[in-house]
TrEMBL record:
One Pfam family cited in the UniProt record for this chain: DUF2249
InterPro entries xrefs: DUF2249
Protein name, as recorded: DUF2249 domain-containing protein
Species whose genome carries this gene: Rhodomicrobium udaipurense
DUF2249 domain residues: 11-79
């Protein structure tokens, strides 16, 4: 019997300067394939990141809280299967 080993992509933005955070997250999102996900750990509720995702890539990504404060927030961001809105040119 073989076991599938998966390594989930993750980024802890608490250790990244504020002005670089979203840029770094979006850089990682570009490498996600359909159905793949990554985890973002933050020291605040990442609502602005979710708004930016939906504005730039409507319907492409799905977000789910894994941990919801008060000191740490963990958000899973998944690229939806087989959906393309055409905005990103195939991001």
């Amino acid at each position: 019997m073989t076991e599938a080993v998966t390594s989930k992509r993750s980024i802890d933005v608490r250790v990244i300067p504020h002005f670089e955070r979203h840029q770094r997250v979006f850089g990682m999102l570009e490498s996600l394939g359909s159905g793949e996900s990554m985890e973002v750990t933050a020291d605040h509720d990442p609502v602005p990141l979710q708004y930016q995702l939906e504005m730039n890539y409507p319907g492409v990504f799905k977000c789910a809280y894994l941990e919801n404060g008060p000191n740490v927030w963990r958000l899973e961001i998944e690229r939806r299967d087989g959906r393309c809105c055409g905005v990103c040119g195939g991001l």
